[in-house]
Design brief:
Layout lengths: L2 H15 L2 H10 L7 H21 L2 H23 L4
Helix pairs in contact: 1-4, 2-4, 3-4
């Protein structure tokens, strides 16, 4: 593993972890009214585009990070839909 790979994987951990506090908080409070639809949509699109790019250039850290990020964005979308009335 190269030093560039290590930096890439460290960025993966930080980048994918940044939305987890929102997921946990939303699950616990069962409220998503302060989370904008636009933010969720842009986060989802961002992860999807970076994932596609990572696959095209064969960059494993980018693929891992954005695969996880995409799943987290889907979780946020699901919570927003589930708790839309709260």
């Amino acid at each position: 593993m190269t030093s560039a790979d290590m930096v890439g994987y460290a960025a993966t951990v930080v980048g994918t972890s940044m939305m987890m506090p929102q997921v946990v908080r939303s699950w616990r409070t069962q409220q998503m009214r302060d989370v904008a639809w636009g933010m969720i949509t842009l986060f989802l699109l961002n992860c999807l585009l970076w994932l596609a790019y990572g696959l095209m250039i064969a960059a494993p850290p980018m693929v891992v990070a954005n695969s996880i990020g995409f799943l987290i964005s889907l979780a946020l979308l699901g919570l927003k839909i589930r708790f839309r009335r709260n």
